[in-house]
Design a protein that fits this description.
single chain; alpha+beta; Glutaredoxin; 3 helices; disulfide bond; THIRX-like_proc; Thioredoxin-like_fold
Length: about 80
């Protein structure tokens, strides 16, 4: 599984990266997590509000922090 956390470095973006890493570890998922901070790369995903989350090339979340249960669902669907 390939996960990308999109964000320019704001507190919410850092928090999304942290909770994503925690949930991946808790669930024992085989996943790579990449943080993308370049605004031009972020815009290539069509994301205009950060933080954003991309799972296997698909944008699954933008503009807010998910609860842990929601994040688990996003990573397993």
């Amino acid at each position: 599984m390939e996960i990308k956390v999109l964000g320019t470095g704001c507190a919410k973006c850092k928090k999304l990266e942290q909770i994503t890493e925690n949930v991946v570890k808790e669930m024992g998922l085989d996943a790579s997590i990449e943080k993308i901070e370049d605004i031009y790369k972020i815009m290539q995903f069509g994301v205009m509000q950060t933080p954003g989350l991309v799972v296997n090339g698909k944008v699954v979340l933008t503009g807010r922090l998910p609860k842990s249960d929601e994040l688990r669902n996003l990573l397993t669907s």
